[in-house]
Amino acid sequence: MITEPTLLRIGEAVQLGHQGGRDAARVQFAEIWDEIGGEQGDPLQRCTLAHAMADVQDDVQQELLWDLRALAAADLITEARIAEAGVPMSVAALYPSLHLNLSECYRKLGDLDRAREHLQQAQATIGALGDDPYGQLIRGGLAQVADRLR
Q1: In tens digits, what is the pLDDT along the chain, a chain of 150 residues?
Q2: pTM for the full model?
């Protein structure tokens, strides 16, 4: 179970965004981003926040920027850091969703080569996910993006 206060606050902002408060979620994410030190902050916090911030963007270019920040931060996260925060997954389990989101961004922008590249990376890392609701959600998303890219 996640125990870190900053990650819990990010989760609360995610819920706000899911309940129709996208603008309010963006404001909260921006505040937390500043508090954690932005690009110099803790990689796990940066990855989690950027991944969520991307989802509440109205502009695809901004969504892409945040998704790229999330991917860059993920490369710096250690298994020890994940365990310390109480995150119930491995670092490897972050990548399918990160690449899925990047694939969809590039597809929306018309860069189909990059979209396919990230789709392939997501598919190559999907084995890190379990056969649970989260894993099924990501697998379903991959199938949808793959259909859109055909």
Answers
A1: 899 999 999 999 999 999 999 999 999 999 999 999 999 999 999 999 999 999 999 999 999 999 999 999 999 999 999 999 999 999 999 999 999 999 999 999 999 999 999 999 999 999 999 999 999 999 999 999 999 999
A2: 0.95
Amino acid at 38: G
**Polymer length in residues for the chain:** 150
Give CA–CA dist 37/87, Å, rounded.
21
| Whole-number Å distance between alpha carbons of 113 and 92 | 24
First-to-last C-alpha distance (Å) of the chain: 39
Q: Please state, in angstroms and rounded to a whole number, the distance separating the CA atoms of residues 125 and 120.
A: 9
**CA dihedral angle for residue 105, residue 113, residue 109, residue 26, rounded to 10 degrees:** 20
